[in-house]
Fold this protein.
Amino acid sequence: MKQTIVSGMRPTGKLHLGHYLGVIQNWVELQDKYDCYFFAADWHALTTKYDKTDDLRQNTLDVITDWLACGIDPEKSTIYVQSLVPEIAELNIYLGMITPQNWVERDPCLKDMAKILKTKEGQGSQINFGLMGYPVLMSADIMMLNADYIPVGIDQVAHIEITRDISRRFNNLYGEFFKEAQPLLNSCSLICGLDGNKMGKSFNNDIKISDTPEDTAKKVMTAITDRSRLRKDDLGHPDECEVAFKYWKIFGDDEEVQNVRCECEKGLRGCAQCKRQLGEKINSKLAQIREKRKYYETNPQEVEKIIQEGSAKTRIKAQEILAQVRKLVKMY
Ligand code: TRP
Ligand code: SF4
């Protein structure tokens, strides 16, 4: 029997290379070794975006389409949408009952989210009951499948700690049942945004998996280079080339990177030319993924089918666990 992995993402729209290199590539590799469940956390999206739900459905489809394009394989992994597994909401109730208020209040991830909210104007700035329940709902996601490992970024580890605390508390109160899920750290994303800051869609410095090759090439031309270099034949400093050379190291093979370094240092390579080549390189690395994405984009009914089947499969497992939970808690 393979061990179980669960991980989710809030459906915030089309994914960028930071998501691909930092998270999804990691998921793809886990698929063969584990029984994997990957889901779009649409309820979690509501914790802060309850007033902006017009795009929620499309965003969910976009995120899952990106996963499929990147190699999450529905034959190997189960792909589902959180809100299509209502058993999670019931488990969330039982877990909420046994979670002390101060456990969620001191959750550093939540504190960060609250800080960002407070900078907003008006209604959107308040912290609702649902947001306070974020780590409990996340625990329900994980415990619903009695998962062994949770691949997440370092920023999510505090949440997983709460999940482990809640599992332990449940087991103490009602009898040994839940595993204590462990985080599996995603290799944190090596790629920065085109401006050298963290890549993010709201910073307008990202390259999306779904971007066209033309848009990608244009974006790459804006990547920051060695700022001290004014003319093409000035000697360059690849290690001070803030973005472009870093991208070369991610996408180029060793020989190419050596060559870029040499030519740059000798002043034999202009930055514009260098970035034109880099754009081509990135496009060729993404070609297969984009082709696959096209396929799913033009066949959305297939994505829908994958979501429905994955959610139905997840519900069956969730119902088995929930039946045992109800018994242990001594519900009617
Ligand atoms: N909080 C996670 C994020 O923002 C998303 C998430 C929700 C999740 N439930 C989860 C991740 C359960 C792992 C397991 O990225
Ligand atoms: Fe960077 Fe290439 Fe310009 Fe050198 S030539 S500074 S590696 S963009």
User: Anything to note?
Assistant: Residues 300-329 form the longest helix (30 residues).
